[in-house]
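This follows on from our talk about sequence and fold. Go ahead and set the record down below:
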Amino acid sequence: MVRLHINIDHVATLRNARGTLYPDPILAAGLCELAGADGITAHLREDRRHMRDGDIERLRAALTTVLNLEMAATDEMLAIAERVRPDVITLVPERREELTTEGGLDVLATRRAVEKVATRAAASGIRLSLFIAADAQQIEASRELGAQQIELHTGEYAHAHGAARAEALSRLARGARLARKLGLEVAAGHGLTRANVGAITAISEIEELNIGHAVIGDAVLVGLERAVRDMRAAMERGVAARPRGAVA
């Protein structure tokens, strides 16, 4: 079974919109776990637009599954990670002007910063994942710098149509095969919904998905437990379409 990590950032976005104490993202994380999520993802941004430092600390104390902390490769975030000790750090690119993460991390251009995080994460016993495009050079550099996992950016696939979507899906599949060959675990995420996730989980090398906006959006209409379970069901339909003998 492909692991499902739920990104709960937008529960905090809703809370922050009115300056209230609710909805509580930590309570939401617990409900996701009860519904079958294999882990929780949270992005602590420099501007704290959704998750806050205290949220990450409370998540670390409350979760019974996996805490995946998305963050930029900065000294501030590295110090927080070393103090809180998430199970996984996922390095992502970050700009204040963006509505959401716009693309994969350029590992080649940020090599020095990634190396620093990789060294200190290893010393703290924290797994390192890099959120990157399905590009051979980026994947190879991720392995060289000590990442144990990559998360392939699926936004281009999610937002494309027709031949463009097919080509984006093909690039993701090639990238996943290369990463697995190099000994990396392969995750994927960004823009995934119940309607488009099946083609991603049909890729045999993909072991984990990080999904947030679509699940939280569905939860507004049908409730969080059902939204998680519906996403899991859509993922499993993709896994069922894998070639015979493929292992999740």
